[in-house]
Automatic annotation (TrEMBL):
Transmembrane segments: none
The keyword Oxidoreductase is annotated on this UniProt entry: yes
GO biological process, one term: melanin biosynthetic process
GO MF assignments: metal ion binding; tyrosinase activity
Keywords: Copper, Melanin biosynthesis, Metal-binding, Monooxygenase, Oxidoreductase
Species this protein is from: Endocarpon pusillum (strain Z07020 / HMAS-L-300199)
Name the record gives this protein: tyrosinase
EC top class named in words: oxidoreductase
Cofactor (UniProt): Cu(2+)
Catalytic activity: 2 L-dopa + O2 = 2 L-dopaquinone + 2 H2O; L-tyrosine + O2 = L-dopaquinone + H2O
Membrane keyword on record: no
E.C. no: 1.14.18.1
Pfam families listed in its UniProt record: Tyrosinase (PF00264), Tyrosinase_C (PF18132)
Length: 694
């Protein structure tokens, strides 16, 4: 590429006449498709990505260097001014907007390789079809928050089927061939390791990844000695424990129904409800955030996916080398989709930020707009259509989104609300199910029915319905006719909503990643291996950080955040896990061996229950348990708020008015207490149990 710059413009081919742009596909749909055009895309992508893997790590457009932009190696890319190096934009509002041109860079480069290197190898008679397939191809996304059926028809969260395949079949001139699947893992060219001295300044320096030639997912096998990790040949080549990833993603059901663990759908939905943009976008603690209960963010959700994708010693878990795993790109295309969905759901808030906030014009280095020194900004990358793509849910040109021939943002927002409610709103689904399974015999639950007292009078009708389907309303989908459901369900279900919040310093362990796990129930003894598989874990927060070595070249953004001791917030929803415990009357053993059962969803029941059964633990990403006192600035709190779920699916659920339940955490040194030195919450954000009881 000589001295010329590499501007990011996306793929401009494949546009329609009326503003249509190619629509990205969910990776499982894309991979399962039998459409000959998509099958051609399989060949094109697998062949092009393999070529980028094989390109010299000294070539700026090799996969190695593109992956390296994310963090390591710490060298300038595309001759950007190094003193301004600010490549990995984490823990700041440009987290999703920086990753947008980053995704586009790989997509655009792959398209160029398809057009210039792959298609010309085929006979002339094939080239037109291949070119058409390339023009409408866009990098697929992995919708991690949608359950998919496995081979036996059981629906749960899972890794993309594509990343499990060791080999894939591709077309070659005159026939087909089986090649190593580039989505199975990345392998360095020419037998190099990531930290090979032949790479000079271009080498990765983060241990233990320097010694690897291929990427790994959950490579750690129980029983292996700690210090042997990555010293053996198998680890260096790459171990893909995709079932290890799957296990982390999955939701665990109680026999009688309901989830005992957290749910990705729930988390995803709640993240999309967070406003304003700067709170939604990144995991950094925003001023005033502690008062509002808005601890959740897109980045925070994404961080956990990095942990689950990489696991102990896996590449995805470390910012330094996270982008080397091709899985990263499927994940990050979905992060980009969530950004696009948020923009569509909150058009006014979106405009507010992108038009007025100074962060919206911060250069997104190293991504250039043109051949000169003009860099993209959040403003310049805001409209995905400008870069020649969109997602299935945001096809703005569709007739149903027009008013008087013009795009109407409110029509899209309403449509998206409906879609998000159907796809991800498991908080509302759980409350509806709980409501429908409330009979006169069941323990009365004033939380679920509060404000809708008349609803309880409907109980005979509900019982009839339950009898009608064999005595058990096992799930909302088992109810045959949606109309019956509508008759019974009130317009609004108001429910108590419980969340666990955590705030901590990102560089607490000198910037090493760590996981904060939350449990309702017993925390098993036996260290990392035992707790990382505990079914009592209801959620976790992952500190997706990278150690800063002040004596070496560093990501300047990270160094600055380390000096400023930046604080991160995270949130895990607890409501559904609690609701299952209550509805199924699941016994929980106390320290003294007594069995207790949650008796209701109001704070007077939940507070003493959680005081006994809510716990948290910290481990680093090398599998060591970490004493909580080492996580500087860490405070865990549980809050109760109110959720409003509407029977009108065009209305979004509201999660609001959170107050901190000090009683649950105050006896733990890393828990939030009422002590003034916590200074986390203002007085009106406190909910003392005593005030409920009197
Ligand atoms: Cu990421």
């Amino acid at each position: 590429m000589g001295g010329s710059r590499y501007p990011i413009v996306g793929i401009q081919a494949g546009r329609g006449k009326n503003g249509e742009v190619p629509v990205k596909m969910e990776v499982d749909d894309w991979w399962a498709s039998k459409d000959p055009m998509i099958r051609n895309q399989h060949t094109l992508l697998f062949t092009a990505l393999t070529k980028l893997y094989e390109a010299s790590p000294h070539d700026k457009l090799s996969f190695y260097q593109i992956a390296g932009i994310h963090n390591q190696p710490i060298v300038p890319w595309d001759d950007t001014p190094f003193e301004n190096k600010n490549y990995c934009m984490h823990s700041q509002p440009n987290f999703p907007t920086w990753h947008r041109p980053y995704n586009l860079l790989l997509e655009q480069r792959l398209y160029e390789v398809m057009i210039n290197d792959v298609i010309p190898q085929f006979p002339k008679s094939d080239q037109a079809d291949l070119k058409n397939a390339a023009d409408v191809w866009r990098f697929p996304y992995w919708d991690f928050a949608t359950k998919k059926a496995d081979a036996s028809g059981v629906r749960n969260y899972n890794v993309p089927k594509l990343i499990r395949e060791k080999e894939v079949e591709v077309r070659v001139p005159g026939g087909t061939a089986r090649i190593p699947n580039p989505f199975y893992q990345f392998t360095m060219p020419d037998g190099l390791t990531l930290g090979d001295e032949k790479l000079g300044a271009n080498a990765v320096t983060r241990e233990p990844y320097t010694r690897t030639r291929g990427t790994s997912r959950h490579p750690y096998v129980e029983g292996a000695k700690e210090d042997e990790a990555y010293l053996n040949e198998e680890h260096a080549r790459g171990i893909q424990n995709n079932d290890g990833v799957k296990e982390k993603l999955q939701e665990w059901k109680w026999e009688g129904g309901g989830s005992v663990t957290g749910s990705l759908r729930d988390w995803c939905y709640r993240v999309l409800m967070v406003t304003p943009f700067e709170v939604f976008a990144d995991d950094k603690a925003d001023p005033g955030e502690s008062d509002t209960g808005r601890y959740s963010s897109l980045e925070d959700l994404h961080n956990v996916l990095h942990d689950w994708g990489g696991g102990k010693f896996g590449h995805m878990g470390a910012p330094a080398v996270g982008a080397f795993d091709p899985f990263f790109w499927l994940l990050h295309n979905n992060v980009d989709r969530l950004l696009e969905l948020w923009i569509g759901l909150h058009p006014k808030e979106a405009r507010d930020w992108v038009e007025n906030d100074s962060d919206a014009v911060t250069p997104l280095i190293p991504f250039r707009k043109d051949n000169g020194e003009n860099y993209h900004t959040a403003q310049s990358v805001w409209h995905a259509e400008d870069f020649g793509y969109t997602y299935p849910e945001t096809q703005r040109w569709r007739a149903k989104y027009q008013t008087d021939g013009k795009f109407d943002e409110n029509k899209l927002a309403t449509d998206l609300a409906q879609l998000m409610n159907k796809k991800y709103n498991s908080a509302a689904a759980a409350q509806r199910k709980a409501f429908l399974t409330t009979t006169r015999d069941a323990p009365s639950d004033k939380t679920i029915t509060s404000g809708i007292a008349a609803a309880l009078d409907q109980a005979p009708k509900i019982s009839a319905l339950i009898k009608g389907i064999g005595g058990l309303a096992t799930s909302i989908s088992a109810i045959p006719d949606g109309k019956i459901e509508e008759e019974i369900l009130p317009d609004i279900i108001e429910a108590k909503d419980y969340v666990a919040n955590v705030i901590y310093e990102k560089y607490a362990l000198d910037g090493h990643p760590f996981t904060i796990r939350f449990f309702i129930g017993k925390v098993p003894e036996g260290g990392f291996n035992a707790i990382s598989q505990a079914l009592t874990q209801v959620g976790e927060i992952y500190n997706f950080a990278d150690p800063v070595e002040f004596d070496k070249p560093n990501c300047e953004n990270c160094a600055k955040q380390a000096r400023e001791r930046v604080k991160i917030t995270g949130q895990v929803p607890l409501t559904n896990a609690l609701l299952t415990r209550y509805k199924q009357q699941i016994p929980h053993e106390t320290d003294s061996g007594e069995k207790t059962v949650l008796q209701g969803m109001d704070p007077e029941h939940v507070v003493p229950f959680l005081k006994e059964h809510f716990h948290w633990r910290v481990n680093d990403n090398q599998g060591h348990m970490v004493d909580e006192s080492r996580i500087t600035g860490m405070k865990v709190s549980v809050a109760v708020g109110t959720a409003y779920h509407h029977s009108d699916f065009t209305k979004l659920s509201e999660f609001t008015a959170y107050k901190i339940l000090y009683d649950i955490t105050e006896n733990n040194s890393s828990g939030t207490g009422a002590a003034p030195q916590d200074r986390l919450f203002s007085r009106d954000a406190i909910f003392r149990l005593a005030s409920v009881l009197t």
